[in-house]
Design goal:
The chain has helices at about 1-10, 20-30, 45-60, 70-80, 115-125, 145-155; strands at about 35-40, 60-65, 90-95, 105-110, 130-135, 160-165, 170-175.
């Protein structure tokens, strides 16, 4: 991950990945809650996926990660292979929310097209276990594009949501 963090910084974050502090935060959420099934919407080049895979090694879990862009999908595949996590990571190619997931999940990370977060929520919420968590990235940096999603999670009877001012901002929702 250190190599990828260095590349992220040197490239000016060309592929819009999370920062290291956000990666550590997500890692800790998964380990502390003993989450086993993670769904990531927006693989990019696999940087956040490596944080998830590292946490899932500790919890004996599995990552399902969805990416629609061919170039990013292939770079992520290479990064997952180099990190030797292909046993934990299942890449899914396509446009979420059209991609079916093969399992019930207990943690979902949204980091893709911001105005589509509302569709991801309505599609995949039914695949989530009670006590699970949804984390949506870019809640501060893309607040306007995420307004409808933010209103949905803040006013949901199924979710307890808070804003975490870390990185570009995270909306963290726990399923109650």
């Amino acid at each position: 991950m250190r190599r990828m963090e260095k590349n992220r910084q040197e490239s000016g974050n060309k592929y819009w990945t999370i920062d290291e502090k956000t990666g550590e935060f997500l890692y800790n959420l998964i380990v502390e809650n003993d989450y086993k099934k993670v769904l990531e919407i927006g693989t990019s080049i696999g940087y956040s996926g490596l944080w998830f895979a590292s946490a899932l090694r500790k919890t004996n879990g599995k990552l399902y990660t969805v990416e629609s862009n061919d170039e990013r999908y292939d770079i992520a595949r290479e990064n997952f292979s180099k990190a030797d996590v292909l046993d934990i990571v299942q890449q899914l190619k396509g446009h979420a929310p059209d991609v079916p997931i093969p399992d019930m999940i207990d943690f979902m990370f949204l980091d893709a097209t911001k105005f589509e977060y509302k569709y991801y929520l309505s599609t995949y919420l039914f695949h989530m276990k009670k006590g699970g968590m949804i984390v949506a990235d870019n809640a501060i940096s893309h607040a306007d594009a995420m307004k409808v999603y933010k209103d949905m999670v803040m006013n949901s009877d199924q979710l307890e949501t808070k804003l975490v001012e870390l990185g570009t901002g995270l909306l963290v929702s726990k399923i109650i």
